[in-house]
TrEMBL record:
Transmembrane segments: none annotated. GO terms for molecular function: serine-type endopeptidase activity. Keywords: Autocatalytic cleavage, DNA damage, DNA repair, DNA replication, DNA-binding, Hydrolase, Repressor, SOS response, Transcription, Transcription regulation. The keyword DNA-binding applies. The keyword Mitochondrion does not apply. Residues 73-103 are annotated as: Disordered. The record marks A118, G119 as: Cleavage. It catalyses: Hydrolysis of Ala-|-Gly bond in repressor LexA. This is LexA repressor. It comes from Ancylobacter koreensis. Pfam families: LexA_DNA_bind, Peptidase_S24.
Amino acid sequence: MLTRKQHELLLFINDRLQKDGVPPSFEEMKDALDLRSKSGIHRLITALEERGFIRRLPNRARALEVVRLPEDAQPPKPAARTFSPNVIEGNLGRVRPASEDDDARRVVPIPVMGRIAAGTPISAIQSRDHTISMPPEMLAGGEHYALEVRGDSMVEAGILDGDLAVIRKCDTASTGEIVVALIDDEEATLKRLRRKGASVALEAANPAYETRIFGPDRVRIQGKLVGLFRRY
């Protein structure tokens, strides 16, 4: 069950998405709920995300998506349709040969969300460009997306400029894993994660680039590298 403030915020975000196509800013949420600071909004959003009502979109600063609404805010379900069987004509029981459509149904579309830097961080990814198709056996469970790599800071990890990095969406990672890191909710980069005490280090795989170290509140993990596509 949601608290009153959580319920109010969820409906406010959903209403703005329906009207404007974009979520409200944290300042607008704070004013709408008559809160004194944006830290209260952060706590409410985290609670709604943990309960599965919203989710944060990968690599987009402050981008939110409403996954579901409370039962008391759901539109009425349409009446069930009466089952009416169709008549099957001819060739009953004949095995249909495999076709290209069957093969297409056995692949998974992965959205390509834009470009990411493997070098000096570039602006956070903002839009979905197109999709690529991958066989499901090449993907672990969970949600995936792809990013076009720009830069050469990960060449010693086999990641080259122009590669398509396949990312499994997650918000945690172990030290040593290659991750998509969002810095200060503004800059996205592909680096190897290292933890140094309470700090987070983003390590390049190219000696020409320095390791960058941040406080834990400045870096959010957006996913882990699980594969690469490369065109020759």
